[in-house]
Amino acid sequence: MKKIGILCLLTVAASSCVSTKTFNSMKAEALRLDGELTSANIRIEELSARNKKLTADNEALMADTARLNRDYLYLNNKYKQLLADGSAEAARMLKQLEESQQALDERSQQVEELEQLLRSREEAIAAIRQKVADALLGFEGKGLSISTRDGKVYVSMEDKLLFKSGSFNIDPRGADAVRELANVLAQNPDINVMVEGHTDDVPYKPNGQLQDNLDLSAKRATTVVRLLLENEEIAPSRIIAAGRGESLPVAPGKTAEARAQNRRTEIILTPKLDELMQLMDK
Q1: Cβ of 61: how many Cβ atoms within 10 Å?
Q2: What whole-number distance in Å separates Cα of residue 42 and Cα of residue 38?
Q3: CA nearest 128: which of 108, 157, 152?
Q4: Strand, helix or coil at 144?
């Protein structure tokens, strides 16, 4: 996954009133968070690649199972014919038949295990989406949407729900939606969270707090993370904040409507499936 500039911890360091010690401390914190995000992005890319490999392996196993089944039927019929002929070849064919049956049984078991794990993954994702949809029912269609992509659940909140133009102070209505989502996360500790801030392509005018759209998006993502962590039942290690700036638009063009869609905060939920990951590692 392409690495994008992250986090807003250095934005306050633009002020000339900050001491060197404070600036160095904040810079170290920003570097630490940047490292965490890099690790998370690498892990996401690894999981995505492994997921594709697992699906391909499953398809190959199913095809191999079908072939073994055809071979088994062929050998079984031939064996019966040899028995009827009283051929001495019957003993050899019987052994080959038994070996084919054993291989078929082993492959069938592997296919069943893989299919069960894939179903478990899909069920976990569907369950997360339903829980989130139930909790945020009153916000859908009002600047909030929920979707499922690449094995993850995306909760997308438009700026009109969360932030005023150029601001990273969260709107009370948007804060209610984030708190409702936090309740779901608190009750489901097996969900990892990434909060991504996105802006449109209109250049941001630098000021004493922010330098550009990247700073603004990172600051907004951090604001949402802090609000989620007000729920003390959520472990901070489960959540990562990322500022994407204008680099990942969802709507092409430079119309007001397209830019409004691109100004958003996405909360990406990923289920922990340790059993599936262990099988993929093997």
Answers
A1: 18
A2: 6
A3: 152
A4: strand
